[in-house]
Amino acid sequence: MLSKGKLKFIRSLEMKKHRKEEQAFVAEGPKIIHDLDGHFACKLLLATSAWIESQVSLPQAEEIIEVTPEELSRASFLKTPQEVMAVYALPTTTLRPDVFENELTLALDDVQDPGNLGTIIRLADWFGIRHIFCSPGTADGYNPKVVQATMGAIARVQLHYQPLLPLLEELNQKQIPIYGTFLDGENMYEKKLSNHGIIVMGNEGNGISPLLREKIDQRLYIPNYPTGVLTSESLNVATATAIICSEFRRRQR
Fold first, then answer.
1. pTM for this structure?
2. Is the dihedral of CA 134, 155, 152, 129 positive or negative?
3. CATH classification of 4-89, choosing from 3.30.1330.30, 2.130.10.150, 3.20.20.370, 3.40.50.720?
């Protein structure tokens, strides 16, 4: 049985300040719970009897509570609850000092839509990008909506929240390639691309902020087709991220 105290605790994790206070976040659904098992410490698992009985072995959790569909519905952040949900401890991220010299990474400059952020995390996982650097104004990656949109990719991609300007200044000094998309950039299909460095993606409405633009030494342009024909002003940031990551990885094959 789900107590009122446990229900209140779970529902409080919808808000960022409570996630920070409790150092915890919520994930829902059999696939995501399976993907996160072993990657994050599970504090609490709620599941229906049908789901529990269908499992060969249950995920590791400090506490498992069998709930009715009605109880799960009250705790869930989804319109249609999916048999199981869990509360996990927020991870402690780690970063090798040579990551920028050896890997391709992403930086998000105030990407504010949870759906966009979740999709970008999922894209990073697909294209083998293991680190995303997020400005303080970027949506919280452990928002229930973001976690759901990642479809489990949050287990394999580390998020680092920090001011981006000092990071890019440091990378400039180390002569690490810093990429960004601009309408006056070079055609990305014709430009030489490295297999390491960082790709900066901007805010949905304003793009990359002026201070960060000054630090980007590799300006890319995603050309529209056919050339010279009037089209939309810009691409959705998650769509643009997909196109850019795909081209970087295509060059490496």
1. 0.94
2. positive
3. 3.30.1330.30
